[in-house]
Amino acid sequence: MSTFGKAIPVNLFGESHGKAIGITINNLPGGIKLDIEKINQELFKRRPKSKLSTSRREQDEVVFLSGFFDGKTTGTPLTVVVNNNDTRSRDYTPNILRPSHADYTAHMKYNQSQDYRGGGHFSGRLTTPIVILGAIAQQILEQKGIIIASHINSIKDMNDLNFSDVTPNEEILRKLQQSDFPLINNDDQSLFEDVILNAKEHKNSVGGTIETCILNMPVGYGDPFFDSIESILAHLLFSVPAIKGVEFGKGFDITTLLGSEANDPFQIVDGKISTKTNHSGGIQGGISNGMPITFKVAVKPTASIGLPQETVDIETMSPTTLNLQGRHDPCIVHRVIHVINAITAYGILEIMARKEGLSWINS
């Protein structure tokens, strides 16, 4: 189901080449002032804008169908749509399965009735309304002092610094928020871009990793076992197309340490308890401990590539070769990073609203 949430349930709808895509956000209290310009800024970051991305150009104009009046939420379901205008459906055929796409699985699950054009409901195009959701959630969280930002941690075998190599603070996170291609070490941006352009030149694609930091998250949020912070965020993060792995704090690398190295010793600084290290990524027992929450996601190489690929014609049940047409990204890491910020903001808002209640949002 394309539905999630208990305190603030959301419903995602639409297809890549359908008339429109959108989202309904339920239970937002009335009276929340929304900065439309900030929503548009987040959408602009996600949009393709250079030779590093697809040539599909959607304007992503936000249309409020309900729940919004005179600059504020009304308290009724907030429904937002974005029209699809720059589609080219002729590039897709229903019978030729594209490797590593949802073509086959959706074909079988939905009784051979799914919209195959551009991946239909499974397309990365559906991350547009997620960005709108995140932009709204971020506006609420920032009023509570919570800041969320991500950086490109790697693309193929090119690596940026980690948050553990610096001390995450508001200045660092603000700079990352303002960038279309966020890196901690900006001096290496051209090298990252060269990796992407080299893949594009060879009709191929590359993936990478994204690292996220949530700053100023108070102690005590998260409900073990099944509604822990990791559980809810991982659930949402894996809902983003192309995400194939999630790790919190030190992640898989913590397995190479001894317990004495992996543990985070407690300390008192200015009368407040904190930890000397942050291998746990700001979460212990599924609950926030007041340290920055950090995690990484793995983004697979874009499945649509220009090289010939072995596949199957599902209509004739015979092997064939796919020579893919269309407009595709050689890498989506630098675009999906803004989706990760968005889905994280919604996840944190959902976690906090479950504990504090909806009236807390306007307090």
If you had to describe this structure to a student in words, what would you say it looks like?
By secondary structure, this protein is α+β, with helices and mostly antiparallel strands. The protein has a single domain, classed as Chorismate synthase AroC (Chorismate synthase, AroC fold, 4-Layer Sandwich). Helix content is 26%, strand content 23%. The chain has helices at residues 36-46, 103-109, 127-143, 170-177, 189-201, 229-237, 259-262, 333-356, and strands spanning 3-4, 10-14, 20-25, 62-66, 68-69, 72-73, 78-83, 147-155, 158-159, 208-215, 243-248, 266-269, 272-275, 283-284, 287-288, 293-299, 309-313, 318-322. The strands form 6 sheets. It has a 5-stranded antiparallel sheet, with helices on one face. The protein has a 5-stranded antiparallel sheet with strand order 9-8-10-16-11. The protein has a two-stranded antiparallel ribbon with strand order 5-6. Helix 1 packs across helix 3. The protein is globular, with a radius of gyration of 21 Å. It starts with a strand and ends in a 7-residue tail after the last helix. The model has no long low-confidence stretch (mean pLDDT 94).
